[in-house]
Amino acid sequence: MPRRNDIKSILIIGAGPIIIGQACEFDYSGAQACKALKDEGFRVILVNSNPATIMTDPLLADATYIEPIHWKSVEKIIEKEKPDAILPTMGGQTALNTALSLDKEGVLEKHGVILIGANREAIDKAEDRQLFDETMNAINIDTPNSGIAHSMEDALSVQSRIGFPCIIRPSFTMGGTGGGIAYNIDEFKGICEKGLELSPTTELLIDESLIGWKEFEMEVVRDCEDNCIIVCSIENLDPMGVHTGDSITIAPAQTLTDKEYQIMRNASFKILREIGVDTGGSNVQFAINPDNGKMVVIEMNPRVSRSSALASKATGFPIAKVAALLSVGFTLDELKNDITGGLTPASFEPSIDYIVTKIPKFAFEKFPQASSKLTTQMKSVGEVMAIGSNFQESLQKALCSMEEDLDGLNSMFKSIEESSKEEIQYELTFPGPKRLFYVADAMRTGWSLERIYELTKIDYWFLDQIKEIIDIEEALKNKKIQDLTKLEILPLKEKGFSDSRIARMINSTEADFRKHRIDNKIIPIFRRVDTCAAEFATSTCYMYSTYGEDCESKPSENRKILVLGSGPNRIGQGIEFDYCCVHASLAMQEEGIESIMVNCNPETVSTDYDVSDRLYFEPITAEKILDIIDNENPEGVIIQFGGQTPLKLADILSEKGVKILGTDVDAIDRSEDRERFQELVTKLNLKQPSNATVRNITEALEKAEIIGFPIVVRPSYVLGGRAMQLVHNPKELETYLTEAVEVSNSKPILLDSYLTDAIEVDVDVISDGVNMEIGGILQHIEQAGIHSGDSACSLPPYSLSLEIQERLSIQSKDIAKELNIIGLMNIQFAIKEDDIYIIEVNPRASRTVPFISKAVGNSLVKVASKAMIGKSLLEQDFSCELPKDLFFVKEAVMPFDKFPLVDPILGPEMKSTGEVMGIGPTFGEAYAKAQKGANKILPRSGSIFISVKDSDKKYLDKLIPLVVDNGFDIIATGGTAEYIKSLGHEVKRINKVTEGRPHTVDCLLNKEIDLIVNTTEGKQSIEDSASMRKTALRNKIFCTTTMFGAFAIMEALKSEEVDWSYNSLQEISTYSS
């Protein structure tokens, strides 16, 4: 059936900010959908609040709205753009829930808009737990013994029937949000209370426990003519009880018999038909009892999901693109398979002759108060994927991709003592992020596979494979480098042992072993991902390394550039850097240069087969990058767009004579080495906060007295604000140095004077080595001391004088000139009164680049990339002028709701997972939109609770009149209340938590407080007030922990939502400058 002609324009709803459970895989799906539908001649309208995505690039859709994904905002866009249809299946749970709200509120009917890709009934049947259960029973497919609850009374009734342990899953949430496993009545009540609160329909499914059962997923695609295909089967290495997003997964499934696979395949098709998914991709999850083979269906997602991204990258089959085209009437047999150059139709089920392994990436080090135990609620922040000819190769390549200094199944212990065995037993019993490494250590201690299986329920097949790796390692320890012949090295490499791992086992160095390997003529070959197990020729160059015969790479003799990606998504290095890598690749192609991408993240646009001329899905390690360079012989490598991941390889690439494009490697060292940086600051006559580098506790205490408290303290050997703290006295400093970090000659600690009441500013500079331009000056809304990634910021600055902005521009250009920047550079400044202090310089792309690019309507990365290959800014006619009379506000999005034990206070260590953008004619409107985009509800009346530290009380003189003008009643704690009274305003005094009942938490629980302004300092004060902030978070009460944030809220309240303006990026770029 050909494409529908009754549809001319389609609104695609994006997924919004990156959060745990809904990450950058929806940038991949949204970008594919936009491109596919636009290529077919549809007018594509996109709404998404996330500026860091490729999807929100103005070139992808005809009209791009960076606006809050809320039904009221989307209705305004529908009124303006008048789309014929909405495609809600590309933006995760956020898009589905928004589409349901639009339908429920009568918006779709009012404007004559239809849903495509999934209808209301299908979404309800799949997402509503009770309807799903009833639907499965109707087609005789087993589901776990379960019950539905809409209240605590219902829940207790269901539990009494099911017993313990039981699994609680809220309806219409993502990533298992609000769910969990309960082993007793207290845990049960706690999980149910949170789940009922988080489910938009106040509905819970309470299942019997399937803990220990094997878990599988089927990625299914169906068209309007009822053609169905399985794109990929996926097996979880971790059994049921660990959310699939937190589990190590393998494709295709390894331990299913052919009969089990066929039963599961047929059940998947049956489920899609009964649910009513007429067109598009879906994900169906099954569990199998390993004792008797009983199969049950757990759930299905009637949309493109996280697993769809993995399945797409694992097979080369573009699920999101195909699903988008099916939604407008095409059938699978009408669509051609891009990978085979159209030799096969999309109705051919992919067949693969390799193994894919996905390993999740966690960030528990950022949240020490949070439980690191893995349950049915997803906690991972990203993932890596690796491709190998066998499971062992695939697994070990994935481990090397993790950016955790792993080179294989590294031991968790320097030496395994008797006490270590207790830890191993505990970690095998209660899964955490490192369970696989404890499994390996259990094998090293001689534990039987039977014992390990009983504790973990990891299938024997996987345990056998891991045991063989451990046995090989033990045998290697008795060998020397000269003992290893070609016949001994080749099997090691075929099983995925990295050069570094082998060198560690034989007590050599990676460089020496690499030379020995190459001398023995053992080099990798590259095979293509072709969807058809090499049955047909492939026209795309999507490759992975392995060892064997017949290299399929066939590198060209063209001029080519290698772009190194950013690896797994994580806090501190997210989707912004993938955006940069994609734009670098596109820039090379625009200049007629072949672009080669290397990355290992299956969620991203950079690993789409059609983004670069050639794609290598490989770990970003020295070994793999050098192998690719040896194979491709590019004229240069771009490392400044992938965050710290590629920068870490700068030295080794330089030593090997590889040409690094753009800024010289020495400039990186000058900006990151503390002493060399101080020389630069002195030479340019700039100011820097007092600082010191210390190597022991005594030296730290001495230098701290000279600098003066408060002090920002951090290790010199970590990035992204990791382990950074603000300390207020010698005791806190000593505690930090003894408990939080290791301090030594090889691991010095950095001390910096904390600039109280300073305004922080980010400046992005773009340079071709001669001409320099300021990309943007972003004023942080939270004062200095809050990590730049966690602070909201405004472009243009909302309160900085033009004179200060001019001085910032001059100083930034001076630094760029001194470092001979070619490409991008980010500088962080702090402004105190009229003094400008330089905080740090990053001679690379920063996380602010996509945000600025969307605001100015020009890709900074493309311009910078072309500058690296010799095209000047003048030749490119580059302009970064902002549209007149508009403010762009970035707000960070935090994951605190996933970690209820964590204090949601902002500080110098970055904790946000994503960001949103608000655009408006005033700073207040832009800030208010950003809050709504971040799912924060700004109250416009009621009671405001204010409790601020002594040094912030001076700000109350200006803040309180604004609060009163906005009609709030004021509640405050002792000292703050006295100060407000002295200003002549009415205030109700309330106890702090430590002062007796009733106190602030009681008031919050009684819903007597609508807005909180709480600033505090010092370890003890922060701990004393943490329960209040946690209660506010749990009860969705807006809370700011900075004074500048409080003033921004007052500005936001000046703008009424009914008056908000909605303009597409395309319209904004046509505004006169």
Helicity level:
25-40%
Low confidence ranges:
none
* Strand order across the largest sheet: 14-13-10-11-12-15-16
Largest sheet descriptor: 7 strands, antiparallel
In a few lines, what is going on in this structure?
This protein has 1073 residues and is α/β, with parallel strands linked by helices.
Topology:
Blueprint: E1 9-13, H1 25-39, E2 43-47, E3 63-65, H2 71-81, E4 85-87, H3 92-104, H4 107-111, E5 114-115, H5 120-127, H6 129-138, E6 146-149, H7 152-162, E7 166-170, E8 180-182, H8 185-198, E9 204-208, E10 214-222, E11 228-236, E12 249-251, H9 258-275, E13 280-288, E14 295-301, H10 306-315, H11 319-326, E15 355-361, E16 382-388, H12 391-400, H13 418-429, H14 435-444, H15 449-456, H16 460-476, H17 486-494, H18 499-505, H19 510-519, E17 525-528, E18 542-546, E19 560-564, H20 575-590, E20 594-599, E21 614-617, H21 622-632, E22 636-638, H22 644-647, H23 650-655, H24 665-672, H25 674-683, E23 691-694, H26 697-707, E24 711-715, E25 725-727, H27 730-740, E26 749-753, E27 759-768, E28 772-780, E29 793-795, H28 802-818, E30 822-832, E31 835-842, H29 849-856, H30 860-868, E32 887-893, E33 914-920, H31 923-933, E34 942-947, H32 956-965, E35 968-972, H33 974-982, E36 988-989, H34 1000-1005, E37 1011-1014, H35 1019-1034, E38 1038-1040, H36 1043-1052, H37 1065-1069
Parallel strand pairs: 1-2, 1-4, 2-3, 4-5, 18-21, 19-20, 19-22, 20-21, 34-35, 34-37, 35-36, 37-38
Antiparallel strand pairs: 6-9, 7-8, 7-9, 10-11, 10-13, 11-12, 12-15, 13-14, 15-16, 17-18, 23-26, 24-25, 24-26, 27-28, 27-30, 28-29, 29-32, 30-31, 32-33
